[in-house]
Amino acid sequence: MTKLLEQAIAKAQALPPEDQDALALAMLSLTEGDASGYPIDDATRAAILEGLAEADRGDYASDEEVAAADKRHGI
Predict the structure, then answer these.
(1) What's the total number of domains in the chain?
(2) What angle do CA 42, 45, 51 make, to 5 degrees?
(3) Which of 2, 35, 53, 73 is 20 to 30 Å from 42 by CA-CA measure?
(4) pLDDT of 39-67, one tens digit each?
């Protein structure tokens, strides 16, 4: 096990049991290559579908929009 994974697990151990279970489910889904077992709410599902539709239409953020977002986040 890597040091980074050890640190993540140590932090996860301090979480409430329901948060630990949610994190465990996400980890298992990712390591099995299937995120379908990770529950998402209707609003999140709608946002994902809208993002995919935007990509299908070629509706991407401009370079200027990306640069502004990077700047806001200190990147």
Answers:
(1) 1
(2) 140
(3) 73
(4) 788 999 999 999 999 999 999 999 999 99
The torsion of the CA quartet 8, 71, 69, 73, rounded to 10 degrees, works out to: 20
Within 8 A by CB and 6+ apart from 12, the residues are 19, 20, 23
Polymer length in residues for the chain: 75
Cα separation, 33 vs 37, in Å, equals: 10
Residue 41 lies in domain: 3-72
Q: Tokens 């502004």 — which residue?
A: 68
The per-residue pLDDT for range 6-38, each reduced to its tens digit, is: 999 999 999 999 999 999 988 888 888 766 766
Q: Specify the amino acid at residue 3.
A: K
Cβ atoms of 61 and 51 within 8 Å: the answer is no
